[in-house]
């Protein structure tokens, strides 16, 4: 069954972004990368089996269950304790409003341990290359995080401790990000080159695709076999349920996705639907911005996708228009019934129809006892999706239909001015070159980390 839901994150980003930022550590430290490659999985024709020379009929002797292990490990001599796992897990649970089932916690615990192992390997490799992060720099980043919560560092430490985490856990994450970023700049970036011909090719393709649809989506990909497909699909539905309750899509992508975009929260970047697998393209075309769909059967597993935005290539987006608005609002007294609210809303709507441009808005507002507020430089795309299409089609002086609720009252927006967006042009050569270099650095960094995992001595306790 395909489930399509509207994500609560879209309208709550500004309110609930604080602790989620801790999970999106690249964004926290300003060293984020944006990969546009999708997942790569083995074909169904048995290529992987041929490469490994595996028998057709496999009999498993004994039982391998990662959940049986205690959540501790020793990575090249560095101990990861159960407390380390618990404190990092507490951050994730807090970021998701504390509403995580016991079953979900166990899955998260296994993934958190994997992430801590990777983080340890990154710090160790940086140290082996004489790259060390000054504790003062880590403390400065930590203070910026605390400031985002409008707390002092000591207050923020208390806040974390009350939720089962600690400042040490966040500082360790900060250290890992800084160390790994510097290692990439030293060992990877100097050896990544992009030619002028490649840049020109990208510009030509963009110009050829001008006016075609593009979608920016994020994906959580979970691999599955015919034997465990039902369980994996159930896990995907559980993840969707957690996101519906306010969980961060990007955080769950970092924890669970098996795609190459895991490190960037599942963000595939801007893609044309034709560049996606057919199953994902169909879902993306049918979805609205802010919706989540899944589980979607794909080659080798299932996917959950989140439509972050849509646009037309190299075409000005009407949602980038800047509006000057007047808002007229009337609140309902406490205890107002639905019928009473409907009657008052109808009276308000009749009065609003008399508005002939913004010049009369204040006068009409005074007559009906409405609050009138001026709002300038409001970008259409920053408004709720239900209002974007309405306002995009209104002329100066026109008003929206009344909207609201019994709790919030009823209101209208009157368009007093509009600055339409300038025509969109292709990115310049420097921007394209920087993006291509970033993608290649990110790809090589994933290979680098894979090799570190392969060569590491890891003991599980």
From TrEMBL:
GO MF annotations in UniProt: peptidyl-prolyl cis-trans isomerase activity
InterPro entries for the chain: OMP_Chaperone_SurA, PPIase_dom_sf, PPIase_PpiC, SurA_N, Trigger_fact/SurA_dom_sf
Domain of life: Bacteria
Keywords for this protein: Chaperone, Isomerase, Periplasm, Rotamase, Signal
Keyword Transcription in annotation: no
Domain PpiC positions: 212-309
Entry protein name: Parvulin-like PPIase
Natural source organism: Sphingobium rhizovicinum
Lineage: Bacteria, Pseudomonadati, Pseudomonadota, Alphaproteobacteria, Sphingomonadales
């Amino acid at each position: 069954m395909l489930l399509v839901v509207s994500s609560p994150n879209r309208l709550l980003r500004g309110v609930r972004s604080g602790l989620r930022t801790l999970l999106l550590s690249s964004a926290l430290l300003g060293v984020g990368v944006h990969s546009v490659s999708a997942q790569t999985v083995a074909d169904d024709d048995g290529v992987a089996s041929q490469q490994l020379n595996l028998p057709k009929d496999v009999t498993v002797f004994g039982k391998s269950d990662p959940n049986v292990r205690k959540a501790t490990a020793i990575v090249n001599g560095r101990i990861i304790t159960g407390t380390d796992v618990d404190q990092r897990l507490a951050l994730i649970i807090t970021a998701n409003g504390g509403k995580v089932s016991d079953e979900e916690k166990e899955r998260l615990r296994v993934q958190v341990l994997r992430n801590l192992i990777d983080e340890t390997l990154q710090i160790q490799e940086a140290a082996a290359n004489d790259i060390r992060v000054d504790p003062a720099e880590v403390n400065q980043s930590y203070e910026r995080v605390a400031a985002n919560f409008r707390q002092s560092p000591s207050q923020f430490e208390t806040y974390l401790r009350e939720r089962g985490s600690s400042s040490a856990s966040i500082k360790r994450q900060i250290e890992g990000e800084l160390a790994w970023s510097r290692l990439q700049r030293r060992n990877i970036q100097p050896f990544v080159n992009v030619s002028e011909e490649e840049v020109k090719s990208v510009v030509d393709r963009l110009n050829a695709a001008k006016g075609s649809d593009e979608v920016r989506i994020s994906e959580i990909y979970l691999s599955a076999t015919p034997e465990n497909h039902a369980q994996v699909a159930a896990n995907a539905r559980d993840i969707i349920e957690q996101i519906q309750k306010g969980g961060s899509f990007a955080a769950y992508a970092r924890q669970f996705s098996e795609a190459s975009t895991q490190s960037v929260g599942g963000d595939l970047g801007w893609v044309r639907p034709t560049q996606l697998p057919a199953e994902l393209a169909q879902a993306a075309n049918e979805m609205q911005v802010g919706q989540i769909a899944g589980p979607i059967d794909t080659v080798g597993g299932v996917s959950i996708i989140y439509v972050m935005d849509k646009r037309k290539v190299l075409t000005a987006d009407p949602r980038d228009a800047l509006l000057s608005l007047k808002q007229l609002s009337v609140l309902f007294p406490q205890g107002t019934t639905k019928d009473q609210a409907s009657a008052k809303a109808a009276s308000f709507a009749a009065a609003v129809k008399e508005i002939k441009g913004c010049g009369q808005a204040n006068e009409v507002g005074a007559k009906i006892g409405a609050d009138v507020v001026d709002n300038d430089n409001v970008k259409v795309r920053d408004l709720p999706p239900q209002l974007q299409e309405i306002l995009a089609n209104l002329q100066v002086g026109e008003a929206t239909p009344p909207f609201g609720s019994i709790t919030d009252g009823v209101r209208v927006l009157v368009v007093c001015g509009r600055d339409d967006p300038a025509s969109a042009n292709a990115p310049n050569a420097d921007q394209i070159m920087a993006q291509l270099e970033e993608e290649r650095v990110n790809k090589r960094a994933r290979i680098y980390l894979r090799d570190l995992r392969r060569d590491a001595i890891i003991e599980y306790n």
